Known about the structure:
The complex is a heterodimer.
Chain A: H1 5-25, H2 29-53, H3 60-90
Helix pairs in contact in A: 1-2, 2-3
Chain B: H1 2-14, H2 18-38, H3 42-67, H4 80-100, H5 115-123, H6 129-150
Amino acid sequence: MLIGLEHYLVLSAVLFCIGLYGALAKRNAIVILMSIELMLNGVNIAMVAFSRYIVPSLLTGQVFAIFIMVVAAAEAAVGLAIIIAIYRSRETIETTKIDLMKW
Amino acid sequence: MAVVGVAAALAVVLLRDVFRAALSLVLCFLSVAGLYVTLSADFLAVAQVLVYVGAISVLIILAILLTRDVTQGSPTNRLRFPAIFVAVILLGLLTFALTSTRWAVSTAPPLVPTTPALARGLLGEGGFILPVEIAAVLLLAAVLGAIVVVREK
């Protein structure tokens, strides 16, 4: 079987949906961050697949993927810092118990 | 490669042990790097291993160890079944849209190696030099913000 563009795109959709389920249904804030990383990886696969099969000589998709990686690294650093700060002040990272701004 | 990646991703959201979920996240990142190699994106594969497997996984494992909520596992909230429903519906819609579209696939061979072309695209004439500098400022701001947030009062 020849592997084409559609296979990579469906795989990236599967990864994105697994990450979406984790981000919606989990209570631990760190697991939610891990699911968001999964979603970003799915999008990256789609970008690189488009770059390989539609414009093989321009590499614009790979440039996009590099910027997504930069933003993901920044987001992981800030997100984990916020989680640790919340854990220090409230002794929990369960998102259902962090209800300071809930009316 | 794809099977390993999807299985590891499922393990991330289904395992009850947070630490094991983090380790299977590392496996998922590695298999995504392998997929980049099959897509002839050599620079991106190396960057994936460096940034995700090297840096982000270590950050996540460090945060898990610092917060000591490992004993409670990773329970789901009461939105579990709506979340499954939404994810499956979205997956069906995406798969239908992706497979029924006729993509204008080019038959040109891929560039090997991609690093010089990527450098030209990022830093060369008419490239993405302004976004590169903005990304540098963004990273600096994120690191400073993280330090300020976790600093002891």
